[in-house]
């Protein structure tokens, strides 16, 4: 397949009928051919500045376990960050964690509009379409975003193995935090390492907010999910919690439908 034919949006298990829809905004570190050379060392493309290492593998396992549709953009966040508002200054990063992203310096308004049109818009429209289809079919639905974060950020060690990020709607966050905190071995970030104030809650807010869907963003420290065993372990753990939470999260809606 030529690179130009490759879709910037991937939808897996679109007809899954479980009560969750999963999005993975930073699943991929792919730089489409047209943006090569990206003037960034390949080793940088392997790190968290280009994507969320491990996140897609966990999201895929969860998608299977929960029979959940899974949507993700197959383009690095360095080209355009799908978890940012179209007018956010960090939409097309010119710097990431102290490292200059030369390829993004001086990007014109036309090029910005083009990336929005070709990557950001189709991704969010695919999520809209998935949610609308489910609501039309009266399928109970909650939205989960899976991300990963780096253990050390600007020289500071982050203590949490997992963080739950949420806005005003705490329904899903309270259930997740409550269950995770029951394990004394875990340090659970509550709106850590990020919070909606950091402008990182765009996808969840945009899609779950207007529809009133229970939703949260799950951030897993990437050294926890660097290999198959870690990915499986976290996916199993989260799947158990989510399956148990299901009647409380979407049960009322289901009964009303
Ligand atoms: Zn992320």
Could you explain the architecture of this structure?
By secondary structure, the protein is of the alpha/beta class. The chain has helices at residues 42-45, 55-66, 109-136, 171-181, 202-211, 228-256; strands spanning 9-12, 20-23, 70-73, 95-96, 99-100, 142-149, 152-153, 156-157, 162-165, 188-190, 215-221. The strands form three sheets. The protein has a seven-stranded mixed sheet, with helices on both faces. It is globular. 44% of the residues are buried. Bound molecules: zinc ion. Zinc ion binds next to loops.
Bound small-molecule species: zinc ion
Residues in helices, as a percent range: 25-40%
Strand order, largest beta sheet: 1-3-2-6-11-9-10
Structural class: alpha/beta
Strands, total number: 11
Order of helices and strands: EEHHEEEHEEEEHEHEH
Inertia-based shape: globular
């Amino acid at each position: 397949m030529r690179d130009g034919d490759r879709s910037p949006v991937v939808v897996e298990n679109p007809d899954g009928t479980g009560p969750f829809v999963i999005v993975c905004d930073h699943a991929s570190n792919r730089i489409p051919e047209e943006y090569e050379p990206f003037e960034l060392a390949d080793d940088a493309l392997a790190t968290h500045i280009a994507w969320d290492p491990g996140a897609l593998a966990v999201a895929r396992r969860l998608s299977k376990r929960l029979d959940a549709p899974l949507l993700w953009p197959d383009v690095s966040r360095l080209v355009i960050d799908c978890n940012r508002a179209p007018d956010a200054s960090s939409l097309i990063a010119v710097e990431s964690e102290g490292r200059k992203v030369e390829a993004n310096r001086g990007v014109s308004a036309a090029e910005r509009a083009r990336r929005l049109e070709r990557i950001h818009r189709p991704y969010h429209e695919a999520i809209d379409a998935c949610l609308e289809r489910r609501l039309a079919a009266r399928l109970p639905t909650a939205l989960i975003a899976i991300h990963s974060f780096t253990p050390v950020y600007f020289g500071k060690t982050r203590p949490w193995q997992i963080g739950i990020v949420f806005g005003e709607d705490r329904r899903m966050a309270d259930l997740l935090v409550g269950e995770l905190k029951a394990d004394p071995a875990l340090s659970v970030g509550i709106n850590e390492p990020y919070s909606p104030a950091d402008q990182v809650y765009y996808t969840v807010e945009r899609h779950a907010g207007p529809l009133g869907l229970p939703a949260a963003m799950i951030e897993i420290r990437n050294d926890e999910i660097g290999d198959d065993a870690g990915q499986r372990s976290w996916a199993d753990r989260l799947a158990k919690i989510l399956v148990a939470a299901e009647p409380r999260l979407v049960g009322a809606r289901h009964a009303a439908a």
